[in-house]
Amino acid sequence: MMNTTSFSRFLPGGSHMVNYWVVDRGDELSVQLSARFHAMAERFGMNPDEQNPDIVLSIGGDGTMLHAFHLYKGRLDRTSFVGIHTGRLGFFADWKPDEIERLAQMIRNYPEDANLKIVQYPLVEIGIRTREGTETDLALNEFTLKGVEKMLVAELHINDEKFETFRGDGICISSPSGSTAYNKSLGGSLIHPSLEAIQIAEIASINNRVYRTLGSSIILPKHHHCDIRPQAGQNLLLTLDHLHVQRTDVLSLRLKVAGQKVRFARFRPFPFWTRVREAFIGHGAN
Ligand code: NAD
Q: N or C: which end of the chain has fewer CB within 10 A?
């Protein structure tokens, strides 16, 4: 269970006040760190603002950042995210617990700190069409579509042209920053987040003389789109990062690179490929 903690508002005499909020994983260490951060922030004259934060600190792991993203996805143009990991190093959580004071000092000077860089990463936009209309949402890592009792059967169209009929466990559509998550387990490629693209990866497709899919993952650039039309009436499992829902009313889905991006506040350089190496290969590897 995630926690978001409230502390009293502090009114300093300084000219600039950063509005911040903390989302923690709810375990003992994350809760303690969250309280420490709030105490430091009060000393530094920062303003706790759960509704309109300039900066959201996620304390926990990558799952905590996914949770924070979905809490604040309605104000992506006004909020930047930064993560502390209380377990192993994460892709979105790259500060260590013992660096919290340094981080608080840097956030205090946000956005003027000279060391600060805002990086913007592409997202997946999902349009879910039903008889009632179209609902849209955003994924930081990925969206997946799976069958529930039966295998998924769906037509896949790229830029309004039929590409293939898929039969199997499901389809995963990921963002570049999500390419290192579920997509990687599916054999998809890792994409640098400076590339505005989405990746479509198959989840256990059936390939025989009747059903044939490409078998490789596909990378679509910005301004291309993919439509998935599941066989009518199927019970579907839709997942959006850590969230999931079962639905039987989906007529089709449209996936594309979102117009909006997520902003991460980087207070020191941590290149994507270094992150990949540290997560999957390790320091000692040759
Ligand atoms: P969680 O926090 O336990 O995360 C699951 C794992 O995915 C963790 O090890 C986490 O560090 C890692 N992860 C999350 N985002 C990542 C990223 N962008 N790059 C590299 N690793 C990343 O559980 P949760 O909160 O439910 O997380 C949901 C995520 O779990 C989904 O977005 C999906 O990417 C991932 N997932 C992976 C698989 C798989 O690899 N077979 C299956 C289902 C879900």
A: C
